Amino acid sequence: MKFAVSYSTPFFGADPDRLIDYARHAERCGFEALYLPEHIALYPGATVGPMEITPTLPYADPLDALSFVAAATNKILLGTAVLLLPYHHPVVLAKRLATIDVLSKGRMRLLTVGLGILPGEAQAAGVDFGTRGRRADEAIEVLRLLWSGGADGVSFKGEFFRFENLCSFPKPVGSQQLPIHVGGSSRAAARRAGFRGDGYFPGGMLGPVERGNQLEIARSAAAAAGRSTETFEYTRWGTIDMPLERVESLAAQGVTRIVVSASTADPELARDELSTFAERFGLATASADRPR
Q1: I want to staple 179 with a disulfide (CB 3.0 to 4.6 A). Which of 198, 250, 272, 274 is the partner?
Q2: Between β-strands 199-202 and 180-184, what pairing exists: parallel, antiparallel or unpaired?
Q3: What is the number of structural domains in the chain?
């Protein structure tokens, strides 16, 4: 089992010192990765399920913030949970992601993308809310095409994106691709993860039966697309106080990575929570033994 941490915007905001302190401490504790969320724009009345999102929450751009983290850390992997893919142009995004990967020496490896659920956010980005699924599917194709393309260039003609003989350099470190995980809480997201992604990171508000159904959908879609189900990753949210029994239960369900976050806005208490979790599961020892 792998363990990662999420940086909570409602708790810590965009404070640079807090972000770096949190990331460095997570790295020292042995956590595999740091995840950051994304909102392009918020507005009064925006809700996620029954919860209204405070429109003044300072959601920093996750890729800019991860670049900042990369410069201040040495080995912790960089992730998004989730990057709102339909609101990014994939040609620009391919360059940004590869650049972060190169500058971080190969650490931009836990990109998780999603569709977004706020209609006003889509409108602000100039995207038809009803087309964002098809737009995301095309964007994944474009990213992989550009990363794999050589000096002769690559071409694409889709519903939303078109170009001819295009070159995108630099390339991701040591390979022609970056893993793309898919986040979401719907069966469509699970199907997209299996058919197009390298992993699935479902939301936290699903019952156990639906979770099992969605994982089976993802794995079946991967197999139907000729993609490996052996290397397909399954990431889930956890809690900072979760016991060993809960981790064992998730592992039995096929989970390969658990992401937790501090439960407090107090920086010192947050560090203590990460340290306690790491000690409970021996993360520092595992990190020291991990190949670099």
Answers
A1: 198
A2: parallel
A3: 1
